[in-house]
Sequence to fold (664 residues):
Amino acid sequence: MNVAVLVKQTPDTAELPKVTVAEAQSGELQATMVINPWDEFAVEEAIDLSDRFGCETVAISMGREGETDALKHALAMGVDAAVHVDERVIDGGDEWATAEALAATLKMVDTGDQVELVLAGKMSVDGNSSVIYAGVACMLGWDLLVNVTRIVDIVDGKLIAEQAFEGGQETVEVPLPVVISVAKEINEPRYPSFMGIRKASRVTIPTLGSDDLEIRPSSTTRWTDLDKPEPEDVQVRIFDGASVEEKVTQLADALMAEKVI
Amino acid sequence: MASSTDLLYSEEHNLVRKMAYDFTRNEVMPIIAEHDRNHTFPFELLPKMAQLGFLGICLPACYGGAGMDFLSLGIVSEALEYGDSSVRETVAVHLALHALPIFQWGTDEQKETFLPGLACGDHIACFGLTEPGAGSDVAGIQTRAVCEGGDYILTGEKMWITLADVADRFLVFAKTQLDQGARGISAFILERGWQGLTTGTLEGKMGVRASNTGWINMQDVRVPAGHRLGEEGEGFKIAMSCLDNARFGVAAGSVGIIRACIDESVKYALQRKSFGKPIAEHQLVQQMIAQMQQDLDIGELLVWKAGTLKNQGVRNTRETSMAKWFCTEAARRAADNAVQVHGAYGYSDEYNVERHLRNTKSAVIYEGTSQIHTLMQAAYTLGMREDRPLRCPMPAYDPDTWQ
Fold:
């Protein structure tokens, strides 16, 4: 059993507010691009599974030509291989088209053994759709687990995992192959090592294009408008008072008046 | 906008940059303001930095180092000081002022004995040159080393020593020939626990409060001859070459401070409103931010130039001095402007900029005051100063043998 991890290259969270509507529409972002922070948990889990079960790991990302920073980061963290998918294969398509291209890629990647587990972060900090991995599972006809907080074991062709839901947690068992989205509680992503960085910087990452993937992506949704909300006008109030108790009383009254508490 | 990081640095460097900045944002920034407030040393960061290889980043792998180049050292220094000067200082003192001098001047036996423990952080090291009565005037140090039965007996006191009360290895300088001025100074590696060696912490610092600064007292400390670094009388040259290493880190770290000041000032200026509009739209605020950006762009280039020369094994005393002089003054200017942009809030420790301002005041003093660097640059330009070849130059970076 080998493991694939889906990663996306997103604007650095600190720079996300600076991304303009025009940049988002054109895809020509000025922001520093990094690995989607949610995907780092998936990468970490893939590396951990590699240590636990001796499986090979491959990171897959779709993006613009040459946009491989997220994949390099995953390699520097410790995944064994990486594959880049040129986003032109979906011709501006939507999440469904993206899932179709990634599913086709998963069928193609050769890691020496069959990929039977696909990991992904639960969402991306830019698109925020949380549907790509679901689409991939659907395209592949595999089971799907979401919001997984722990992979307990993989034994006899079955995976046992804990997943969180609103107000609780459950332990489930599914047959392989399976697609899993991971929650941030699952692990603490490691920092890339200097050795990993050296290795990653020397790797040439293969890119798959239209000639490599036999897909006919169909897009059912397209942007008709894109808007960026104005920042909220935040009011600051500083409470005067002779004592902490007096200030806290005023603060509590104000919070109740605003129906915050 | 083309970033100098894209133009000047390799993909490997940019991966190091992301890792080091992630470390600073995740591990340093959440805790450092409280340490600064309490004047406490962030001991919890040492094992984390050691595990990532920061403490031996530009030492060859055969000595337990990470085998990265000097530009990578600059990048990590920049990222750490983006969080706080104290954390960058730890790497600078431990690595640039202790481990690298052993790498440069040590015998094969000394390198094999001392460097692995330093690279992995089993030992934390410092550098003792300054004394209560001698700072810039290095030849005026009073610490004495008397040869006795094949050993040296050291007596004296060192002052303003970063990590004095944290380190367990000390590179100290002492006079072996009292009448020889700078030529009578020798360098010695001391170990905590040796009889007669005591250390203490200095209180009441204006800045770098999350760093440990203290004194080293030596009362007839017996030092084996095998712990003398370099030849007898070579201490002044060793000390000056140490400063070539450390000043590079100071310069790079100052670039980190400027970047932090820009990030914080831009964020604040776009949010804070006065006279019905964000203060970022006021031209005098724009002037301060433009000045910071100009300083950042220049500082990055100077650090890159010095780091590139180091990688090539080219003597870089002038270039490193220029980078240190410019970048520390620019960082002080940037922090001052950042406080001004933040107004009254900037004067409070609710924001980071006042801490950067206090920290930058020390940076224009240590590792050669701005006045010393001014005189050095004038002397180079006027033809009054020339760097002679060293007996042991710092080796050029060689990825094939260092990794």
Q: What stands out?
A: Chain B touches chain A through 20 residues (CB under 8 Å).
